[in-house]
Design a protein that fits this description.
homotrimer, 268 residues
């Protein structure tokens, strides 16, 4: 827990600039979540300025939710610039598998070595299938299948892979941490996954180890959601309280509520 | 009332995918409203993927609020795909009459036979004027004039036409149902009309009769708004409570609060 | 205080149409703030319709937050149309100084004589540096330096310049009014500056003197924020309450809470 507390303190102390190329639906949410946690969001996609902005940022978040031809080019430019300047970049493959165009875009982006990839189980399974080696779709246990896909995707890309869901998994090759924070009502608010990715960006900007940064971000958001659910009457009040809690979350909250576990090889 | 209760249950049970090409202002609102009611929103506009996404959706919602040349093309592609795959599509003619460009775009979209059209009185009157036969603007009773325009527009296009306002009308040629739910404070929240259109999409995806789907969607949103207004202190808390209520609304709420009436020929 | 009360009453009575070309992140916020205060927002950027829409609006707000090539052209078209039709237009130079592209865009927009410019201290300082005459960055007092930059920018452009921050300044050449309303938590909500600019648009649409319009808008938003902070538990509940308060704010609230002062030459 201590590392999560330290990481959150670093975000609040350093207030890292997080550059986002994200979808129209969630820009407001993710900017608000970044501000609430103490980071400084920039949302920008214009080709002529991406290099300038990636350079001054601590991390770039690339989310393909409402992609089109111009924005795909923006994403590639940003990913290249992040590599050029040695900045972490985080890929959110929204809707992977839903269209051929999304799959092609993801394939292009993977060529530029994302530091971290965060998606839900179906997105990660789709990416592993599209781009590599899975055992097909006849696994009876979705959760196991997703985890296997995540491990395969991490091995193939070298990226930290985060699968979010009822239980979140953070994966780097054979290293897996499970996080059991969060609340089902978070699934009724648009952009909670995208918000997770944005927060990973904030933590990755100040924490050297992208695996630990991802674990901390997912755990903090999950706890903020659990705390919010205590009094929420539905997704409207839930969303509001998540921002309030990202702002207020204390070391004690983290100590009391974080639920992490490392999965040994036997669990896999 | 029973049909509304059944329709809402179908949305919650089937969780239909609703594809949206909508405006930047309300994407977050309408995604949240769709999630709250139990549907699964997709927001996407890229030309290369529209056919794929319309195909997997139960309905498409096309809202021209922040249109431009690329997006108009997206809208036409989506409307064509909806017809190709036999999916209902719903047109929200935001700002009809405010610019020549909006009117031209609406004319193009009407060529692709929307299943349902929802607008406010001035938008529907503008559409009826632009595209057909009205008696001019010298009617002394705006409400009557709007209703006449709605009937004319429905007859001309074959679409169900919904005029939202203090009283909502759902029209299919000479069949008219009036809904007296809702609250004036809803007019102080951006995108309440767009939210109505999105919810119509959710109901149209699971209810075969687009007339009944529209009545149910408008009634449910109106009731959610009325319930929200009881404790709201302004448009901020009103918006939040509408999401909470869309999530929580019960059969009893519908039974107690729905205010529907069919207008006979004599009323018209 | 009386003029602020009168100006707010004019916004509520006249419900001016405010045209916005603004960034994706805040469109929802600024539309909601405009509706809450009593204005009628239009968000539109399509080249073919800008002249039509600026013509029917009382003011245009141009915010460069998520600019790209198409949108920059939209901004220029709107600024030209505003001048053609004698409408005030308000520039929000988001991120001035963060990229060469932003600076170039601002230079182009300044050629079309904005009526009012609102930015934070670093944006205004960057604009004054980029486009004119400052004394460099070695001032020890940022606030003084910003104020000097604002005065220089106003003199160079002829625009009213508003610098928002802990204390807001409204500047027309050597005339300066300081406003000490607001709350630090407003900085943790995305788009509060953009919301300020949008509200300035609403006031400028109904108040002839752009200096007074700006003072009134900044003061009303600051008071709404102060009132919101009394019960807010974080940025989520803060944002919600600001909308509620913009809707509810009374003459008495303004009389009791407005903190204005004119700076004489000796203060500068």
């Amino acid at each position: 827990m201590e590392s999560i507390i330290n990481h959150l303190q670093s975000v609040r102390d350093e207030s890292p600039i997080v550059h986002n190329i994200t979808n129209y639906v969630v820009m407001n949410n993710t900017a608000n979540a970044l501000l609430a946690i103490g980071a400084s969001p920039i949302m920008a996609h214009a080709h002529p300025e991406l290099r300038d902005l990636v350079k001054i940022s601590g991390a770039s978040v690339i989310n393909i939710g409402t992609l089109d031809e111009y924005w795909v080019e923006s994403m590639i430019l940003a990913a290249k610039a992040a590599n050029e300047f040695g900045k972490p970049w985080i890929l959110d493959p929204v809707g992977a598998g839903a269209s051929a165009y999304r799959n092609e875009t993801i394939t292009k982006l993977l060529e530029h070595s994302p530091t971290i990839i965060r998606g839900n189980a179906s997105e990660i399974m789709s990416m592993a299938k599209v781009n590599a080696t899975t055992k097909g779709v006849d696994s009876t246990n979705t959760s196991d299948e997703a985890l296997e896909a995540g491990i395969a995707l991490s091995k193939k890309t070298g990226a930290v892979v985060c699968i979010s869901g009822e239980k979140d998994y953070v994966i780097l090759e054979d290293r897996v941490t499970a996080i059991e924070n969060g609340h089902q009502l978070m699934g009724r608010i648009t952009g909670m996954g995208c918000t997770a990715t944005a927060l990973i960006g904030a933590f990755a900007a100040v924490v050297k180890d992208p695996f630990q940064a991802t674990v901390s971000a997912m755990c903090v958001l999950g706890i903020a959601g659990e705390m919010a659910a205590e009094k929420a009457k539905g997704p409207g009040s839930m969303q509001l309280r998540i921002y309030d809690n990202l702002y207020q979350i204390s070391d004690t909250d983290i100590t009391n509520l974080a639920k992490l576990s490392s999965l040994s090889d036997n669990d896999l």
